Amino acid sequence: MKEFVVIHDFLVSHEIVGDWEGEEEAVAENVNEFYHTIYQLAEDDINPDELTFLLNLVWDHWIGQDHLADIEHDEIYDWCRHLLENRDQYLEQEN
Predict the structure, then answer these.
(1) Half-sphere exposure of 5 (CA within 13 A, CB side)
(2) What averages of pLDDT result for each successive group of 10 residues across the chain (95 residues)?
């Protein structure tokens, strides 16, 4: 059911991420990599509301992190995998 979530609705450009002292494009690319990785790792039958909630967590959690411009791909993958594997704790916090 993840096909009901349009990943392009989440993707950001360098204009959206704010001032990162010349690193805006890298930050936008990394944020978008989070979105794509979560979407790719999510099972096909994930509840669309859950997937939307998890995708929204990317911005909430990462946009203020100083090392967002320099984060490595394996860190992004590991965080996304952790998020999906432990989604219940995040969903409980929502309620």
Answers:
(1) 25
(2) 94 95 96 98 96 95 94 97 92 73
